[in-house]
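Question:
When you can, review this sequence-structure pair and walk me through the tokens.
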Amino acid sequence: MQIDRLLFPITTLGPGNRLVLWTIGCSKHCFNCANPELWNKNPKKDIKVSELVKMIKQSVGTQRVEGITITGGDPLEQIEELNNLLELLSDISNDILVYTGYTLEESKDIITKSDWESFEKYTSVLIDGSYVNDLNDNENALIGSTNQNIIFFDDTKKDNYEVYLHEGRKVQNVYYNQDLISVGIHNRDQ
């Protein structure tokens, strides 16, 4: 699976102290995308899912992971490896949020039924839809533009996410790999 970065703890892409992974590869190429450097696949950053999970477990150690967010790039463009990863990560947290530029309907069209069932089984929340710069309302804490949807596959997570959404947008600056990375849902002019 092609992964660019892994950060913990992140508090700006979902409720609680979250483990966040950024996948590589996205065919959407949205205007003003937050991560255009992740559009093109990079075989040099390919890692076996089992090795990735081992690395994750070593990184977090005994710290409590309150949630996991997988973004990108577009994680659904690596669906088979993603499903393998989701199953293994479900031992770390039962709150897994996945971002995709595909709508729910598009996702179901491009992913086989069995892959979709596996994806939905281990995903608590899906944020769907391409980022549209003109629809960035500078408000929602989890979506970048108002055409995107927050879809709950696990309704028991709704209350926790509602509290998080009422806190508003925030960003977290992290020094990673000799770069300063700003993590979160950014306002249109940022």
